[in-house]
Specification:
homodimer, two-stranded antiparallel sheet, 3% strand, elongated, DNA-binding, DNA-bd_dom_put_sf (chains A, B), DNA-binding transcription factor activity (chains A, B), DNA binding (chains A, B)
Chain lengths: 130, 130
DNA sequence: CTAGACCTTGACGCTGACGTCAACGCAACG
DNA sequence: CGTTGCGTTGACGTCAGCGTCAAGGTCTAG
């Protein structure tokens, strides 16, 4: 399979795949004319990357998963390094969630305060006369 | 007060203040020699911006607050436009929190699954013999 | 033979909020 | 008079993950 087909099958762009290759994820064999050639393994590999990216992982953080897959393991998280990334990301998510909850509370409080100061427009009633 | 002092008092950099000016927040009078000159109002203005930025507001989102302050209101959120931004940001925060909670659950589940597959190192016991 | 669809590399653009450097002016101190 | 420390504008660099364009090579169908 060539890069266009892989991109289509993975639901991404050729530019993205070439970018992954430039980062050392997703190496590709070349056919005689220089075209990149991929196998079905590579599709699974790209899907792994995309899934993690959707979770908010940076590309570098997907590397252990990718290398795990390329090492022949059935899934990208079958290796200790991947589990470490999971755990780090969980801690990061927890910290972020805490921060965002705190911010939400602050913003909410300030909104309430400001609304109390100068009350909102009193809900137009749509009466004919009044 | 000149830009260096304002920066120090606001806990930021001169570059940041010039950037705010370039974005139309924080206009400055000029002294004879071309130096920017600020008053205490401007300090409050910068503090307002920084507070909102710490909450994750983009610079553009701070504009209503800044204009509200410059219009003479006692606080930046005394104006309807600011309240609108608060409300939008709350909705945005709620959506983001939902997404992050979902991601957290997914990552947590995958971690548990992978740990069950290939259990972690069995907690070294520090025995002399065993 | 040629049009069109695919592929190649290389390079610049984008977003946000600045950091950092260059090259210069101005002011005060000794 | 020179140095030091402020100020000025302008312009390029940073981070991530690509998008987009340019200029060209390759392969296939008509």
């Amino acid at each position: 399979m060539r890069i266009g087909e892989l991109a289509k099958r993975a639901g991404t762009s050729t530019r993205t795949l070439r970018y992954y290759e430039s980062r050392g994820l997703l190496p590709a064999r070349r056919s005689v004319n220089g075209y990149r050639v991929y196998g079905d393994d590579d599709l699974r590999l790209v899907e792994q990357i995309r899934t993690l990216q959707d979770f908010g992982f940076g590309l570098e953080e997907t590397r252990p998963f990718v290398e795990c897959l390329r090492a022949g393991h059935p899934s990208g998280d079958s290796c200790p390094a991947s589990l470490e990334v999971y755990r780090d990301k969980l801690a990061e998510l927890d910290a972020l969630l805490d921060r965002l909850r705190e911010v939400r509370a602050q913003v909410s409080a300030r909104l309430a305060q400001a609304e109390a100061q100068a009350p909102p427009e009193p809900e137009p009633r749509c009466q004919l006369r009044g």
